[in-house]
Amino acid sequence: MTFELFVFYLFSAVTLFSAVGVVTMRNPVYSALFLILAFFSSAATWVLLEAEFLGVVLVLVYVGAVMVLFLFVIMMLDIQIDTLKEGFIRYLPVGLLVAVAVAAEMILVMKSKAFDRPIPEAAPLSANNTEALGEILYTEYVLPFEIAAVILVVAIIAAITLTLRRRKGVKKQDQSQQVKTKKSDRLRIVKMKSEERS
To answer: How many distinct structural domains can be found in the chain?
Structure first.
């Protein structure tokens, strides 16, 4: 076993361990921290597979932005830990059944004849993998890339539409009315006689 293969198995084991920790931890903060560990080990696996750009993007986008947002939301919300514990035990049999079904499907796919073919030698790239990825993404796969972009934009618009519900009794600011206000609308000068001390 070469050192590179040993490191690959090590990071793969860390990824599996942290993925199990994400779904089994009862504290949501610990689950988010395990997810960060899973992202880091997955990024290291990408770097071992000579896809440095994908590894760096995984760390910058998911660990640097998405997980910080997740941790911020988790810590700001008042999450009832007891309710989460009850739900975990109740849905454990269904979760185990789904996990066994997914594992069986993956084993059947990996044992199919499509994986028995020898892997052809990759042609040496004249540029780095970032340039090669961009060239393939924006030439050969430009239509699926654009379709995915449209789907993401529609999902963002749908999420914003679902959360912008008008609620009765909620006071909202009207910036156009605030800009049009004058001093006379806000300030009233009252003239009073001074009091005389007896």
So the answer is: 1
Class of residue 39 by CB neighbours under 10 A (exposed 0-12, middle 13-18, buried 19+): buried
- Residue 174 domain flag: no
Owning domain of residue 155:
127-159
Q: 128-133, long-range: CB within 8 Å, 24+ apart, which pairs? A: 129/50, 129/51, 129/52, 129/53, 130/52, 130/53, 133/53, 133/54
Structure tokens at 76: 């700001």
Give the max Cα distance, the chain.
110
145, part of any domain:
yes
Count of residues in the chain: 198
Q: What percent of the residues of the chain are helix, what percent strand, and what percent coil, each to the nearest 5?
A: 70, 0, 30
| Model confidence pLDDT, tens digit, residues 22-70 | 888 877 888 888 999 999 999 999 888 888 888 888 888 888 888 888 8
